[in-house]
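Hello again,

I reread your note about wanting to compare the complex against the isolated chains. To keep things tidy I'm splitting this into two emails, and this first one only covers the full assembly. Below are the input lines as submitted, including protein chains and any nucleic acid or small-molecule components. They are followed by the predicted structure of everything together. The single-chain runs will come separately.
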Amino acid sequence: MTKYNPVTPEIARTLAEICGESHVVYRDAERLEPFSHDEIPGTHYRRLPEAVVKPDSAEQVAAIVRLANERRIPVTPRGAGSGLSGGTVPVCGGIVVAMQRFNRILELDKANMTITVEPGVIANDINEYLKPHGLFYAGYPMSVEMCQIGGNVAENAGGGKAVKYGVTARYVLGLEVVLPSGSILNLGGKLLKDVTGYNLIPLLTGSEGTLGIFTKIILKVIPRPRFQYDLLALFPDSDTAVAAVPAMITGTGITPVSIEFMDGDAFRQGCLDLNETLPFLDAGAVLLVSVDGNDPEMLAGQSEALGRYLQKGGASEIYVADTRADSERVWKIRRSIPEAFSQAFPRQSGEDIVVPCASIPAVVTECGRLAAKYHLAIPCYGHAGDGNVHSRICAPADWSDEHWDEVLQALLRELYAEVARLGGRISGEHGIGCKRRPFMASTCAPEFLDTLRAVKNALDPNGIMNPGKIF
Amino acid sequence: MKIAVLLKQVPDSQAVRLDPETGTLRRSETDAVTNPLDLCALAAAVRLIKDVPDSSLTAICMGPSTGEQTLRQALALGAGRAILICDRACAGSDSYVTALILAAAIERSGPFDLVLTGLRASDGETGQVGPEIAAKLGWPVITGAESLTRIRDNLFEVTRSAESEKETLTFRTPALISVAKGIGQADLPRLERKIWARREPVTLLTANDLGFSPDEAGLKASPTRVVRVLHPQLTRRGRMVRITDSAALEQAREAFTDLLGRKEEE
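Full-complex prediction:
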């Protein structure tokens, strides 16, 4: 492990000179605490930083990183802290660079269909800003109301609309990034095609803050569809639900915006949390299928066609949400599931497995086997259209922390081994961070990890940028 | 049992934007939706007819041609018949003329035992149309129903909120009931019903069909006018006083007496 130096009072003074005294937190545990964790439930993935700085220009970020690099102090970039992998936990202490003051929308270029933003802008605010212009940014993480775009790019966030619109990386056209050396690098721009040298934007997108800190982001925007229709289809079990998906897509020739999956337990928990009156007790599994567009007649026809295939595939009941209120009602169920489980189970681990779509039932089955073996609950939900399953491992309330940690590690080793056997990976959209780092060696090829390390060493030879993450 | 439900299409209040200068709705930016309380009325009607053989449920909407969307939604949610009153001559009708036209439609397409509607529409917010229809029909009216159950035959029971109390009333049909949110939301429509509703014919009625000449409908026949639309200015301010002992009680009493005195002077 690299040896790092502490943040001394002298360094804290220099940070204050760079950003202004009011934008530095040092030796104040109460004010440092909010920067010690992300949204992972529980207290396991926490560490107080030694200092927090809140710069508001690329030059300030560069000066901070240069200083940290010279003095061998770890730097951890932070957006809204809504992550679920511990990516922004300063596991080696040092300086947290909080990007909250980078909250400006800099330019909407309608002629080129781009928007230039700072990384601290809330993802939802981008779409609120674009709405009157008839445009939208298609990245849609489920935490859309609080997460910041810088974090979305750092994690290459996915979310509920990936089936049709892809994930964050598809929309990142340009980046201004402060490298671990402290130099400011501009990549891309407003170009849809660019093969001038290595394409570094996809490398930095999803690099979890280990290769640099974004200070400006240029995103592609697209025309906003005016309507969305949703189908909520109840199935007797997960196998039947997931098996209905490929036939539905190939049979109709329609690419839905979303194909969300909830097993019976997850759907029930979400419904109970919202006092929902839908017949959730009868459902062994549920698919939420959405289409969008500008022509209500076309969408009605598409819903009908998709619904027919879901019926053929074994859906016992299908509800249609074709108004904004009804659409919000069905999506609320899906979005409420993580929080509903957080309330119900104090000790839990939210997983982010991704497998080839057809293997989703195998993951659900494996989770059922492991739940029975270890005497706990593992409801599953997620994105059936892209194979990303959020298994939620929930321990009984009377377990001790020690027992829970022991069981969780053993269970995850088994689960991840099965995921690897199915051709899957341990994270589809939440990232590796520090939470899944211990499992990388057992689930990835050594050549792959060596290549990642070579890239990291080339850009960050002193290992100061978000250490203790990924590998 | 034969029930009619009156539904109105309104701008989507969640998507609505006010013009900051004129205070009017920017309609071009909004999509029309069915008045949420009218959907509650529909849901109550669907629940009522479920257990009564040979019942029927008719959805009636007055407005522009886009009202057909509201009626197809009503068909998908359980209505068996849909009537759209759509005529340029009706444009601009105030609540009184609207009530006259709807009462005529109810008489023409009935007879009905019950007419249900929302307590008020989210755009006009008057809450007048329902009672005015009942007056025109000579029926009893109960507003703001939060539950509606059939006791037997044509005897029904309603609960409604009156200030902080609950009132329970029984009534015999025919009657017009307007419902409040507490009566419950509509179910989500099922696919099969949705497919059927998409193709089911909607009956179109004009002012003339209902016996209104162009001079008897619309803006010029309306005795009331919207002169200005203002944002309500809330001037009430509450103050919480925690009473822990007799001194605090005395202080609270004095403060309240002062307040009443100031109110009287105003």
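For quick reference: The interface with chain B takes residues 132, 226-227, 231-232, 277-278, 296, 300, 303-304, 307, 311, 317-326, 329-330 of chain A (CB under 8 Å).

B.
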